[in-house]
Amino acid sequence: MDQVTLKSLAKELNLAVSTVSRALNDSYEISAETKEKVHSLAKKLNYQPNPYASSLRKRSSNTIAVILPEIANNFFSLVINGIEEIAQENGYHVLIYLTHESHQKEADFIRHLTNGRVDGVLMSLSGETDDISHLQELKNSNIPVVFFDRICERLSTVKVTTNDYESGYQATQHLINKGCKQISYLAFSKNLSIDQKRRQGYIDALKDNQLLFREDMVINCGNDQEDNYKKIKTLLSSSQVPDGIFASVELLAILCYEVCRELELNIPGKIKIIGFSNLRTASLLHPSLSTITQPAFEIGKQAASALFQSFRKKQLVLEDKKIELLSELIERDSTK
Amino acid sequence: MDQVTLKSLAKELNLAVSTVSRALNDSYEISAETKEKVHSLAKKLNYQPNPYASSLRKRSSNTIAVILPEIANNFFSLVINGIEEIAQENGYHVLIYLTHESHQKEADFIRHLTNGRVDGVLMSLSGETDDISHLQELKNSNIPVVFFDRICERLSTVKVTTNDYESGYQATQHLINKGCKQISYLAFSKNLSIDQKRRQGYIDALKDNQLLFREDMVINCGNDQEDNYKKIKTLLSSSQVPDGIFASVELLAILCYEVCRELELNIPGKIKIIGFSNLRTASLLHPSLSTITQPAFEIGKQAASALFQSFRKKQLVLEDKKIELLSELIERDSTK
DNA sequence: CTGTTAGCGCATTCAT
DNA sequence: ATGAATGCGCTAACAG
Q1: B219-241 residue pLDDT tens
Q2: Mutation choice for A interface testing from B67, B85, B104, B281 by most A CBs within 10 A
Q3: Left (φ > 0), alpha (ψ -120 to 50) or beta: where does B11 sit?
Q4: Shared domain check, A301 and A290
């Protein structure tokens, strides 16, 4: 079957291509009658404008990119849901790029995207990222960027986060309230500001409760799960086993739980765990695992909304603005 | 900063645009020397080819679409991971569309995608879909489609599934082995072949074990969670409470578990549950919930691979081929 | 091996 | 209110 184009429509109707184009774009300078004729034929033949021709001409793509560390993770899944919903409402398309926490991939994606494929970028940094020259380049190329969760503090643009410092503080306070004296913090990337803030909340909560902060109670985990496993196992096998653990991300909370089970450490009798987590299946979790749950869906919606708002205002350089949403502390070790 | 184009490169080097184009595409008919000059300047100026111009000309987009019911669900998250990985390897871009189980949205997306935005489509049907005319149109427009999991039996193309009939049988047999006499099946969409197959496995397992199959033990759930909740509650509040439940999807397993807890039905003493589920956090699940786990990541990879293979062969009409992967039965109620 | 020319489908400027 | 002509940036057919 032949492709339906403006040209073929024009021919069929004995009109000029430009007239058909204007009619379909609802231009004010086309008579109602002509518009009607054009629209009805377009509908009949299921005319679909070629997006590449249109984007080439208009220099805008109606497409945004989402760059993420990973997706097999409830937090990012929910964020994508939020983004996709807002994108649909605005008639935009969503491209997904996964970095798998690799700085190299992140930089490659971004350098590629300066070619005009997308009108804007939503992103959450990879844990490896410390050099931000690729982000700087993106900004210089006038493509609006909105960061969410794992933001880049040093770049002036819109950032959507949650109250990480307070959450870290609350989580630690929660463990202290449950009677913990020796609390360990499982960090996942010292490059990321969210980690730093959660960590600072942890440290301050200890201080405010007159508990000793010990450097060796902070376990710096990374992207290598094998290695993380070993580090946690070492911690929990030592003579100085903590009686509380605060995991800064879901994956570490789970890993930690698994090690505890392996070592037959009684939860929550001998050791209490709290972690960041966004499982919708929270009710199925082991009853001893309390969580800090971020409003992931809302984060996605807010981030996307901020981007689309900038499109409407035609401002390519976004103002430096922080949107802070609140996480929720969900207790699950109280009744047991 | 001015945009770097073939034209600007050509001007700078005193070459024709076509020569530059060929050099960058590593054409055999360009001298090594010229290639070198072109490549080094392109690199220096960070030349990025305009994807829209290129796609318009080549009539191919290096982009695929993934159409899914939802994503806040471990199965589909893992599938996307697999797809994205293969897409990256092949230098393709991935567009995501979520139908939220709406037939209307599914049809809209697909009709839109006949415009050439993508070179191929990977999809899993919405639960509402029974009319397949939109799928037929997609095929007629010569865009290759690969279905995974929620496939369309009636359309001849590549389909990637798991052994749903056998899984349904095994799950039911598992409950029977644990001593269940009255087993209920929670269906999620009678339109979908995967539901039908899982259901048939359930029915046959009952028969093979000389257990009575009762129509009222099949609960036809749908997309409305409130309604599903009520139906499950009614089932579990009746005088004929089943002693085993087989949930055909993760969401229903979770819902069922919640209702049991609400009604204070002892699990697994009074009632046993098994459900399809793809939680990576399986170790954190309540010990009583056994699962059938699909190889989601692998499904994504296989589906994407099949699509890219068809691109390489330049065959737009895919052969009718079924790839069946195996799910895994994970027991978690044996040791307790 | 390289240059000239044409055209992908669309939106827009300039005519009328 | 409509048509003709131009060009977005690129690839490819054709010419030399």
Answers
A1: 999 988 899 999 999 999 998 89
A2: B281
A3: alpha
A4: no
